[in-house]
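Journal club side-thread
Mid-discussion, someone asked how the predicted structure for our own chain would compare to the paper's figures. Pasting it here so we can look after the session.
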Amino acid sequence: MRILVIGGVAGGMSAAARARRLDEHAEIIVFEKGRYVSFANCGLPYHVGGEIEHDSYLLLHSPDSLKAELDLDVRIEHEVIGIDRDAQTVLVSTPDGVQTFEYDALVLSPGADAIVPPIDGMDLPEVTHLRTVDEARNLAARAATARRAVVMGAGFIGLETAEAFRHRGIDVTLVELAPQVLPPLAPEMSALVEKELRAHGVDVRTGVAATGVTAASSDLGDGVSVHLSDGGEVPADIVVVSVGVRPKSGLAREAGLELDPRGAILVDEQQRTSDPHIWAAGDATAVRHGVTGQVGPVPLAGPANRQGRRAADSIMGRVDNAQPVLGTAIVRAFDLTAATTGASPRMLDAAGIEYFVVHTHPANHAGYYPGSQVLHLMGVFSPEGRLLGAQAVGPDGADKRIDVLATALRAGFSADDIAELELAYAPPFGSAKDPVNMLGFLAQNVVNGTTKVWTAAELDWVRDNALLLDVRSEREYAMGHLPEAINLPHTHIREYIEGVKQIAAGRPVRVLCASGVRSYYAHRVLAQHGFDSATLDGGMFTLVDAVPGLELATGAQQAANA
């Protein structure tokens, strides 16, 4: 059997390596257009920032090492330029001219192309992407002398690039067309990351687009000027474009394979394309989302590796059905980690799926153990309590909580299941009630009616129609509160219950605190005394990030007792 693989790195090399492990006698040839067939593309920003000192550390395998270890015939600087499905051949442009190769099975793993905005100046030498080892090597060299950089796009790679430049002491302007950084995150979670970026000197410009890049005018010195849609102009020595990728599916299109509307290659559960002799894996393929059911490309390294392995299994006659993709992803932004899995509220809105959201802000480990820090955790659940997605932002512990919740999501867990998860606990690592359990407890309470929550989206209605009760301490209240809110620390609720009744005068009572814990306690007291009561989801922590520009009053306590 002859297996041809088009493209290396995650999908292609996983397919080739797995095929060899399953069949020692198959002829396996890998064609790679570039010079590197197996490299750590996720590590590129960390080389630019100097954390990965030598670019050689990014090179995982060479043709020689793959030949010695797996007996693979890897041919770099070989570009496949055509596929003849009827003849089962590919046309390859090689250093020695164009050649034709027959195949019994063909694996497409061409990856994705960086999107280039349709604006002037994208061909200037100061403008680049960060997708290849050569680009990382060149950026690392230029970063040694550069003073100013502009990063277009505040997604995962954009944030990593901005951080890398700041580690080099470069002034960075981060430009994002969306109204927030990290668009996959909920706005209130993204706001935490934006604060961290600004705290480390990144000039964040959201809601604006680059309209062009020109050679800098003399008064701005050397380099280029990046022109923005709001009329701004930013000087730069380096411009990195990171506004997204699109499937590199030209070969598949020309060969007549079925594609989705975004140009991704359609495959079945064994990675087989619409041609029974051709499989596909990696960023160029369409996958089904595990929550929304929507089909499209999800360019992530983990799924690409698994898809390549699955394609090889299928070629060898093994059945390994694909699981829908959850889009689990993580990024470091200086001293914060942001992570997500499953569906966000925005995705669920687009898919027309009902849900509710809960936020919690526990300590990342036992509060009495030194070094505990706040972890911001968000869960998205169906009305019946099934987990649909989760997001976490924090200085420590976000990664393992999202991994647990990604596993729970794959298993189809509900709030009840999450509340009962038995997770490892010792004071340096977590709490007896782990943040994951706490998220489950909160969702349980919402589903079974123990807790009635109100959210930032209801703020205007609450201000006009309800008694706002701030149950934080007098000191916290004085430092900043909603002007309409009356302060009554939660420990005095029972003592002043009649006073609350008189001030409410039949209106609903909406309770808030810093994180939602104390307001929950107060809410339960009020509810059991007959009040139409609800607690603010996530407390002031979530509210101030969900409502940009929220004005808070300062000053002394107002008493709720009549």
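Post-session note: Residues 335-448 form a domain with the FAD/NAD(P)-binding domain fold (CATH 3.50.50.60).
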